[in-house]
Amino acid sequence: MAPNHTIFTMLLAASLVIFAISCWRRFSLLSLGRPEDRTDDPGRRIGEMLRYAFLQQRVLAKPFGLNHFVIFWSFLVLAIANGEFLLHGVFPGISLARLPDGIYFPLLLVLDIVSLLALAAVTIAAARRTIAPPYPEARTFEAYFILSLIAILMLAYFGINAGKIAAMTGGTLNVALTWMPVSSRVAMFVLPAEGRYVHDISWWSHAFALFAFICFLPNSKHMHILTAIPNCFLRRFEKPNTLPMEEFTPENTFGVGRVDRYTWKDLLDSFSCTECGRCQLACPASITGKPLNPRGVIHDIKVNLLENGPSLKLGGTPLKSLIGQNGEGSVCEEAIWSCTTCGACMQACPVFIEQMPKIVQLRRHLVETEATFPEELLNLFENMEGRSNPWGIAPSERTKWYSQMQVRPFEKGVTDYLFYVGCAGSFDSRNKQVTVALALLLDKAGLTWGVLGKDEKCCGDSVRRLGNEYVFDRMARENVTLFRDRGVKKVIVQCPHCFSTLKNDYRQYGIELDVIHHSELLRNLVQDGRLALNGTAGDLGVLAYHDSCYLGRHNDIYDAPRQALELATGTPPVEMGRNRENAFCCGAGGGRMWMEEHTGERINITRVKEALEQRPDTICTACPYCLTMFEDGLKDVRAETVTVRDVAEVMAEAALR
Amino acid sequence: MLIVACIKQVPDTTQVQIDPVTNTLVRDGIPFIVNPYDTHALEESLRLKDRFGCTVAAISMGPPNAEATLKKALALGVDRAILLSDRVFGGADTLATSNVLAAAIRKLHTEYDNVGLVLCGKQTIDGDTAQVGPGIASRLGYQQLTLVDKIVDLDFSAGRIRVSRKLEGRHEIVEAPLPAMLTVVRELNRPRYPKVPMRLAAAAAPVEVWNNQVLNLEEQSIGLKGSPTWVSKIFSPERATGEILGDGYADPDGTAKLLIEKLLAKDMLPL
Ligand code: SF4
Ligand code: SF4
User: Fold this and answer.
1) Are B65 and B157 found together in one domain?
2) How high is the pLDDT of residue B271?
3) Structural domain boundaries enclosing B99
4) How far is B224 from chain A, CA to nearest CA, in Å?
């Protein structure tokens, strides 16, 4: 059937109505979310959007990213051809051919070649999905359907042109051969007499593929075509190493127990997921067989929103609970408790979805509103509240580590630095050795520093990541008051969790502390010549460095510990397979330190095995939790000849001999 | 039906030191906690509330700052929190304390048609006498069921309770008519964790304070005057000097062996 503009116009109108209704249905659900401001610094936002949405910087970080880059840009370029097609279908008078030849011919060339590139890219995408999908569940009907639609669009594009070219002769044919190389090659298979049929069939195929695409898009994961760009624009600039504060007034609700307690941006995130699976491939919980899958969490939020949306819009209650074991659309409790808050998911996500804070919000609901949580945590919470440390040890024991040495109390004007020792450094027998090593190094470098002794309190990191915001809020306020009263400005810490909490979380409480992690401080002291190294720590053998999540991903400190180790040993540490921003968690963050790990392989074992692939003699950490996790893991895999050392201990080997 | 949970604010004993001069506990700056055994009594009362819809009152005798303890009880879900506080109650031994608590419960009797159960922790961690619960029971004429680790059966309409008592190496199932006073052990239950909305509500909710004008007890039966016992001295026994065996960090297996040998030699390991 020859192109029929009336039928075309009617079908297009119908598709656009379906498109508009579907978009409205989804986007109007965003208004159910709580308010959140994401409009600060628009200039920077535009820059980031160009970088990440248009130049696809994060997409390109993985091998198949290039393929997506090609599809994305083809999509933009071919929008010209598809726009013309739609307009021409309705108003036959409109055509690109009316452009001057000097523009029209090169444009034809570009469209012809880009169509071929796009066809190749979707073919590769389909093949990859079949042969080696990013994750097994990625082989969905939806994915293949959309890829096929794109392929049909491209083939039909060639068909339309080839149909026309087949009937051409003389000068016009020569122009076509020059400016439409792909289409004219296709035309070689078309007899002049068949040109018309080929053209008509292709034209309708193109039309139907386009209509199907328009109707299907807002109802599928390909919604990301509409939302990914705004999602990059609306990304959070601050690293999500802090969580939003809660206001403890009786009329408030705490955490997220139903989908409309998320903010509109959280909900937009759920519509922006491309289901690429990069987050789950980076997630230590998913990899080691826990029921947590960050992609799944985002998907469940979306499904839950779509299911409950209509009722919530009318002011009703949710029909499907967000937390629980109700299949798709609900997140099970074990998944919620499996997260180590390592941030690998957020680092991997090409469209800046913030998975981890959404999980913590669910924890908040469980802890604060329901008071249900894994058994082990009851003691932890009570110890934190009662004695301000995870073990419930008497605060007076905080001074025990320096019973054999001279340590001053921190005093404003007398001591420059507060050495905030932290709970592990104060109470854990292995980590106390690190504390002592660091204290000796500080003395050797001639720094004046003091401690709070028995007045020191836990920073509250674990309770915050575990969702016990109420207790964290109290602990933070107490600490901030203490720091203010004592006139604390510069703080040395040896724990990345203390580091991040004091530096980032406490800022929400109005205090800007100059917090320095010991790995940075020690490196600086050596580089500035203030801390002399007497020898090297070379006898530690091959040394592998493990990035702590809260030092690395959450605070971008990757080089300082490596440089410190290089200064101490004379050689840079060897790198594990996954390192720096892609490093794999030790398993202890997010309060997981205090919980049992029953499902799947233990995260620390996975990481220890990865470390052992480099055949190190010493594994070096910069975090008390990592230190514990590695020592335990090495015992479990019976690799007892390998030792674990903190950066400070390695430095001490070189400086204090 | 009213259930009364008796709770006490105690100093966090892991942090308590003894003043060698005055022979008293140094309480300055020491945080207070709810007596751990009492938290189980409280929890059981709340479970009975959940099950039978009873009213739960938490009562505590102590100085004004013991209000914090009762706030915690409110945050966990008790309906009433009553602080028995008066200077004349101070310096009480277990006899005088049980007089005050019993009087308060008696007064609650007049407000509710029925006081079914009184629950106490088996003892407090500061005094360790385990006498107050039984004292209350005798003064009120209630059945006393001590060291309860399980309520096997409770029938309010028939007025009977059957409990399991945890004794040295055995359990005893006993049945008694109501009203009864139970002292409970840790194995009874796992205390709940307060929900934030309840904590916030508790912060605003009032703790009733009853002084002796309310209870109207004779001064001879309360406080210092009503206490036939008094503490003449508190001290920490000298610890015999310890010994560090081996190097547990460098050689955990060897050190464990050393320890086992040592214990075996002293016949301190059951084999
Ligand atoms: S923060 Fe880490 S553990 Fe949690 S979901 Fe993301 S990748 Fe998984
Ligand atoms: S959340 Fe981000 S990384 Fe994970 S599947 Fe979706 S788009 Fe990919």
Assistant:
1) yes
2) 61
3) 2-221
4) 31
